[in-house]
Amino acid sequence: MNKVDPISLQRRFWNRWNAEHREHEIQDVCIRQAEVVLDWLNSLGRNDLNILEVGCGSGWLCPRLLPFGRVTGTDLSDDVLARVRQRVPEVTFVSGDFMKLDLGSSPFDVVITLEVLSHVADQPSFVRKLASYLRPGGHLMLATQNRFVLERFNRISPPAPGQLRRWVSRHELRRLLTPEFEVLELFSVSPKANRGFMRLVNSEKLNRPLKAIFGDRIERLKEAMGLGWTLMALARRRH
Questions:
Q1: For a designed S-S bond to 142, which of 8, 77, 93, 233 qualifies (C-beta 3.0 to 4.6 A apart)?
Q2: Does residue 102 contact residue 52 with C-beta atoms inside 8 Å?
Q3: This prediction's pTM
Q4: What domains sit in the chain, N to C, each tagged with a CATH number?
């Protein structure tokens, strides 16, 4: 019996998943990630950046990056990117396995990758390749699932064929990044839970009146305590 190429399985999964989800709806977790990334980009104070988004999926974030400079997006989902090119012609989209792609020798000022790390087989090699596309001193803006929160406070369906799942903790993420990067910021966002005590803590019924009184301060406190669904890392490539 012939074995199916793992990358082909992953490509098939992500083409289907993006077509069913990201091309139709952007969830609150993603919107919060984008807010953080845009704040980081604004803090750089430039509009001439060369930006690469690795794992851009449906390309939903790429148009929001254009005010900061030139944008290249890459993803394994070739069918999805074929449609994205029609919707967002101002962005250069390159489909393929990032670990085998050659994106040229011109270094990028910023590399952005949202919820991709947990879906690659060799995470240290992935981080090294991210660094290889950055100029010395360039910035990595990364989001990935928070293993502590997902394992303890959430019920998650088993991975589908072609879906890799290798969540990391905050400490594991720092260890992964440190050989290539100086970690400038590392925190969690988007508190979310569907089981245990944290389900009550994060319930809409409890948080709606608290938000009316305290605004986003309670949510930000939970994020600062590491209780967010997502880990966000801002890192600078070492010279």
A1: 233
A2: no
A3: 0.92
A4: 6-147+160-191+228-237 (3.40.50.150)
